[in-house]
Amino acid sequence: MTNMETSYRIKGATGDWEVVIGLEVHAQVTSNAKLFSGAATAFGAEPNSQVSLVDAAMPGMLPVPNRECIRQAVRTGMAIDAQINKWSRFDRKNYFYADLPQGYQISQLYHPLVGEGAVEIEDDGRSKTIGVERIHVEQDAGKLMHDQHPKRSYVDLNRSGVALMEIVSKPDMRSPAEAGAYLTKLRSILRYVGSCDGNMDQGSMRADVNVSVRKPGDEFGTRTETKNVNSIRFVMAAIEHEAKRQVAVLEDGGTIQQETRLFNPDTGTTRSMRSKEDAHDYRYFPDPDLLPLELDDEFLDECRASLPELPGAKRKRYEALGISAYAADVITAEVESARWFDALLDAGAKPVAAANWVTSELFGALNRLGKSIGESPVQPGQAAELLALVADGTLSGSLAKQVFEAMLETGDAPGKIVEERGLKQTSDTGAIEAVIADVLEKNPKQLEQYRGGKEALFGFFVGQTMKAMAGKANPQVVNDLLKKALAG
Asked: How high is the pLDDT of residue 488?
């Protein structure tokens, strides 16, 4: 792959502007409990039904780190080849807000769990490395609900204390498309690893979007941070709007304020929320209730051994089997699809035929039915059986489509459907020859034209023969026998 060259520029009255983008992704850790308490983290629970005394900041309650949350963050770091810090520390980030019972958030400013790593992104056969500065773990805040009462706001503390990984990129992205590709790839990695479900619509993955603009080659400009954007499409839209807004301000003689902004998905615009705080505004200091985290080699070895085959390695393996780069990319994009395809190969399907069938027939059918691959009525073993029936000549391509439709409707095995519905392809030369003779007899005019040099009519005779045999004749045998009969 070649390096990705970004030609994205914003056209201004004074010339071209370049956009500089960094993303801070908050990914909810898949675990059995919150970061410092045993409370559950299920999505959609009744307000305040998943709140321990620790989450509610009751006096005398002390936090205890959840080992599984730390393990998942370490595994995520390993998946992007990041430095894992054997020694890390929790800090208190102090601020008051009604959904933060403690009056501070426990985070990791100075000594994060995971150091520098990288994510490779691809676009149209080109690649680029986006640096990751750090991954630290922190607890989420609760949530204010403003639509439950005409005059009051209610507080739901279910999210209070939920474990988050904050994955901070370097300012290496130069277009909305690159930011979209980075988020897509990062989400895929998290889902493969199993450290976050990546459900952005449920808030378990969201991004703070840092944007600045500059004339190409100049120093970085002042950046703004657009908070809590919860879809890849919205992140791309927020970047585009914010970059164009900044260019307009600068070309009008104004200056960019370092501030926090909010994105409105209905209008595709951003608006100012508050001036951007610096670290000293939060009076960070080491959390006195928590010892530093110290990881031993045995724990790290166990984390590394538990990692699955990641999307990049899986794609290369598929391509080595002869599968096209496009098909390999489509299949590996989602972990469920890749697992389903691996099960199909394990059931004996030939790689190239299997990949072509999955990316066209299966994905097309699931899309039509509005189902995910996890909800597929057809299981990998059944699909392998169907492909084997095509490979050995029992089914033609058109018959295979009929059998597949029946499988989607009934969930039955292809062999059973073929037997019950008499859909077996025939290679019986005697039967095919008899049909061909009948076709030629019924179409004397076309026969005369063909023998007079109009060879394009060959397809007509093939079609008539296949129609007469209800599509059950082996096309290759039909072609061979027709050539012989027409030459006679």
From this structure: 67
Domain assignments of the chain as residue spans, ordered by start: 2-303, 309-421, 429-487
CATH classification for the domain delimited by 429-487, as one of 3.30.1490.10, 1.10.10.410, 3.10.580.10, 1.10.10.350: 1.10.10.410
Of 108, 21, 120, 121, whose CA–CA distance to 73 is shortest?
108
Q: Is the pLDDT of residue 426 over 70?
A: no
The amino acid present at 28, given as its one-letter code, is Q
CA-based angle 83:87:88, to the nearest 5?
Answer: 90
CA atoms within a 13 Å half-sphere pointing along the CA-CB vector of 477: 20
Structure tokens at 382: 């059944």
Amino acid (1-letter code) at residue 445? K
Q: Answer yes or no: are the C-beta atoms of 214 and 18 closer than 8 Å.
A: yes
Classify the C-alpha dihedral 368-373-374-379 as positive or negative.
Answer: positive
How far does the chain reach from its first CA to its final CA, in angstroms? Answer: 55
- The first and second tokens of residue 266, run together, are 């209905």
Which residue type is seen at 461?
F
Name the β-bridge partners of 461: none
As beta bridge partners, residue 21 has 173, 211
pLDDT band at 340 (very low <50, low <70, confident <90, very high): very high
65 burial class (0-12, 13-18, 19+ CB within 10 angstroms)?
middle
